[in-house]
Amino acid sequence: MNPIQLFDPASSTYTYVLFDQATRDALIIDPVDEQLERDLAVLREYGLKLAWAVETHAHADHITSAGKLAELAGAKTAAPVGCGIGTAGVQLQHGDTLSFGAQSLLALHTPGHTAGSMSFVWKTPEGDHVFTGDTLLINGCGRTDFQSGSAHDLYHSLTVVLFALPDATTVWPGHDYQGRTHSSIGQEKACNARVAGKTEAEFVAIMEALNLPKPRRMDEAVPANLTSGIRHDADGALLMQPRPVPAAHAGTYAGDVSPQLAWQWLQSGEAVLVDVRSDAEREWVGFVPGAVAVAWKQWPGMVLNPRFDGAIQQAGAGGRKLVLLCRSGVRSIAAAKRATELGLEAYNILEGFEGDPDEHARRGFKGGWRHHGLPWRQN
Ligand SMILES: [Fe+2]
Q1: pLDDT of 296-319, one tens digit each?
Q2: pLDDT of 174-203, one tens digit each?
Q3: Strand-strand pairing, 25-29 and 49-54
Q4: 115: CA distance to ligand 1 center in Å?
Q5: Percent of the chain at pLDDT above 90?
Q6: Are 16 and 28 in contact (CB under 8 A)?
Q7: Superfamily for domain range 235-349
Q8: Distance (Å) from CA 13 to ligand 1 centroid
Q9: Can you name the residues that pair with 273 across neighbouring β-strands?
Q10: By three-state DSSP, how is residue 345 classified?
Q11: In what order do the strands lie in the sheet with 25-29?
Q12: CA 222 to ligand 1 center in whole angstroms
């Protein structure tokens, strides 16, 4: 029997659900945070009980829902031992198996895309399957230029570990960007453009010449995936309530809200999300779908936007609350104060879009809209 193959269009990620037809015990490979509801619906629809949520590696392009599936569906989590996913209940070693009903999944260490990456073999009476994550893609392979990657290791994993599987084994990749769903070991061994018929030196030269851009969500996804996609916020009790303005600013604006609360208000239609960053920041750094853009200051020179008053009044015209977002929560306070002077109910979103710099002066790791995994996009 075949796995259920599910697709996340935003990251072109394939998620797989495998199950035992008799007992209905199931296993999910590489679940995506944004697809949690879909995946729970699939489990319900097929009458499955999720035994395991498994990762092929710590992903750089999407956040896993493994931690949430553990809470909501009672799954146990498993991840390759070399991936640093400390929250996974089982740290898989090469040769380990995971059981679901009478079925079992075999872990093969296939380093190269990352040092810990694994592929998983599922043998069924109708045929064998291998879930290759980003190690082997259809007519391609995962990149090796970051996250402890190694083209030499990947060559070994492809040619010695995966190509040793029977030719008829169905290959189920972690991604495909062209709508292809599966392949076979025989097909990839014969025709894979990166590796078929190539020496290790030729393969390494191909990988080194790729010059790929950094994944858009890497700074957000990798830290989140090291904790199975669950974030731990110190101020959980106050997370979903507005906080009063500090005494020094009493009465100057309506209050402070967490990014999570702002998102909830936006979704329920209670508030309008106003992005007060400059046009350039939204363009270059990213933006929140559904937010109204009303810059507080504009480049060049970061001068006050002369159209701010009119635009913010228009945003608040329906009488809804305004929640104001900037880079790290400074301009949004100034803008919320001005909106309050204009008679609007304006809140500041704590931590802003990018959060505060961490000890290495990097943003995106300490608080902020993106760090909390809330929706955002780049053009
Ligand atoms: Fe990856």
Answers
A1: 998 777 889 999 999 999 999 989
A2: 999 999 999 999 999 999 999 999 999 999
A3: parallel
A4: 11
A5: 67
A6: yes
A7: Rhodanese-like domain (3.40.250.10)
A8: 9
A9: 323
A10: coil
A11: 4-8, 13-19, 25-29, 49-54, 76-80, 90-92
A12: 10
CA atoms of 224 and 60, how far apart (whole Å): 10
Q: Return mean pLDDT, the chain.
A: 91
Tokens 């996974």 -> residue: 88
Q: What is the DSSP letter of 34?
A: G
- Numbered ranges of CATH 3.60.15.10 in the chain: 4-208
Ligand 1 centre to CA of 172 (Å) is 14
Q: Which CATH number fits domain 4-208: 3.60.15.10, 3.40.50.720, 3.40.50.1100, 2.40.128.110?
A: 3.60.15.10
Count of C-beta atoms within a 10 Å radius of residue 290: 12
Three-state secondary structure of 212-236? CCCCCCHHHHHHHHCCCCCCCCCCH
From residue 246, alpha-carbon distances to 194, 219, 231, 329, 348 in Å are 59, 31, 26, 14, 12
pLDDT in tens, 243-283: 888 777 788 999 999 898 898 898 888 999 999 999 888 98
The packing angle between helices 66-73 and 36-46, to 10°, is 40
Q: How far apart are CA 275 and CA 315, in angstroms?
A: 11
Ligand 1 is an ion; residues with CB less than 5 A from it: 59, 134
Range with the largest mean pLDDT of 49-58, 281-290, 347-356: 49-58
* pLDDT at residue 231, rounded to an integer: 56
Q: How many C-beta neighbours within 10 Å does residue 236 have? A: 9
